[in-house]
Amino acid sequence: MDFDTIPKTLDRFRPPPNLTDYRQAYRDFDWQQARIKDQGGGINIAFEAVDRHVQEEQGAQPALVWLGKQGERRVYSYGQLQGLSNRFANLLTDLGVARGDAVFSLCGRTPPLYAALLGSLKAGNVFCPLFSAFGPEPIRSRMEIGDARVLVSSARLYHKKVAPWRSELPHLRQVLLYDCQGDCPAGCLDLDLALSEASEIFTNCPTQAEDPALLHFTSGTTGPPKGALHVHEAVIHHGYSAWCALDLHPGDVYWCTADPGWVTGTSYGVIAPLCNRVTLVVDEAEFDPERWYRILADERVNVWYTAPTAIRMLMKVGDELVARFDLGALRFMASVGEPLNPEAVVWGQRVFGMPFHDNWWQTETGGIMLANFAAEPVKPGSMGQPLPGIRAGIVQVDEQGQLTELTTPGQVGELALRLGWPSMFRGYLHEEARYRNCFKGNWYLSGDLAYRDQDGYYWFVGRSKELIKSAGHLIGPFEVESVLLEHPAVAEAGVIGIPDEVAGEVVKAFVALKPGYEPDDELLKSLLAHARKRLGPAVAPREITIKDNLPKTRSGKIMRRLLRARELGLPPGDISTLESDEGDLHEK
What interhelical angle do 477-484 and 136-145 show, nearest 10? Predict the structure, then answer.
């Protein structure tokens, strides 16, 4: 098989791809083609995702198939999803939650999460999903930054991760808990009971295009997490991008394996597919190869959107397992979250009879920017081509701040996007200067290094900053270091990402100890346990190394770049700001 390009066969499955002529579509596209208006002359994400289909007499179509950990299976129609979200919107109104207040969720992949997301948007609130595997510290820091007024969670997660410090957030006015089983904690409201008593009739808040709608946190390298704010107009790009990049057709059965605690799981796990009137598959359980293949087969999934880490884990299991299942309904497979290695693309072609289609975007872009399209050849390892309506480029910014676009194929620079797409974030909460620094002229600077080949495909080279991307999760070193420094034995901490065959990268920490502490196995276990308890397993270091001291600049900043270079045997680069020439740091 040609490893460079995998051609597409258009007539193997029906219906044909939505985007049959990419170049013509790109040349002729205007955002007015994708404009939508709700019944009030404004625009509301939840209306476009659910209510519109009910108005168009499609309310009986399945909207969501929920698969529980214990084998439960519940099907919710668009009409039922409308009713559930209306109940939640009415509950917020009855509780006096003001328009624009932030509603945070700390939920597993359970039905209340979807009711809360859509209901909050209907009521004019800003919805912020949190990853349920986070530990208490990441949860608290995000709720503080986001000025959380309402929290939706399960009783179990609340007791474990929120209750001990809830009193430290005086602005948190309402805590709505499901699965209380008749024993709702003091100061909290039984969500199951409250929803059962709420009305299914609700008139959506008349939101406009620029009204805040979604808050997604992305980790910073040198500071606390950044809260990226998105508006209701983003739904225009959500719906259109899923139509052209994920090839969604009305009536498709679609499975996005991303958790809604991350931007992918919200934008393309809920909003975008519902806008295209598909049936969502939602699996509450964690990754299990046999379970995943059974879901693809039993639910007759047509379009599957997953992460490179999951694909690599399936590859490790081997080909025999997948051969036991009938996956004949599967038409299109896509990947996102980190670069997809070429071997995985070719493996998909061999095992499933079709390649995985990688695409690229960021929390800040709000939606897919580059993609390998259904009707275009796939170049294994490439992020693909810009969507119609998206103008991408490779740029350089010199020391004087002057931007130059690099037009020669193969030149490496920073991947940038011309401003103007609807789902672009509108700011970082409380960090206007940080937001402005993302732009140069009329370009958004992604911070990712890439190049464009002679055919217009883009290829990822690396990150210009120090974010760690592990199993599709962006992890900020500062956040992990801050928790490690809370341990009584730790004097200094530096965190980097190191390559991992399955997860792409894993977190590794280096610490220097305070006087009086010995670097023995018991202390290492204590440090790891502390980090896992505070940060959760998705963010905590996989490995901790104790050193006599860490490389620092003269101003005292830990040089993560030098830690990484020494760990991986890379050139150290510029060390002119190094505090002293330490040579090789002694490991304990």
Answer: 120
Can you list the positions of beta strands (E) in 363-489?
370-371, 385-386, 392-397, 403-406, 413-418, 427-428, 439-440, 443-452, 458-463, 468-470, 473-475
| C-beta separation of 244 from 388 below 8 A | yes
Tens digits of per-residue pLDDT, 260-317?
A: 998 999 999 999 999 999 999 999 999 999 999 999 999 999 999 999 888 988 998 8
Confidence band (pLDDT; 50, 70, 90) for 578? low
Q: What are the respective helix, strand and coil percentages of the chain, to the nearest 5? A: 30, 25, 45
Residue 458 tokens read as 């883009």
The DSSP-derived string for 75-125 is EEEHHHHHHHHHHHHHHHHHTTPPTT-EEEEE--SSHHHHHHHHHHHHTTP
Instruction: Of 273, 337, 249, give the one whose Cα is nearest residue 538.
Output: 337
Tokens of 482: 């801050």
Instruction: Judge if the upstream peptide bond of residue 15 is cis by omega within 30 degrees of 0.
Output: yes
Q: What is the pTM of this model?
A: 0.85
Give all domains of the chain, ordered by start, each with its CATH number: 32-451 (3.40.50.12780), 470-568 (3.30.300.30)
Spatial separation of the C-alpha atoms in residues 262 and 259, rounded to whole Å: 6
Short-list 314, 311, 353, 310, CA closest to 332: 353
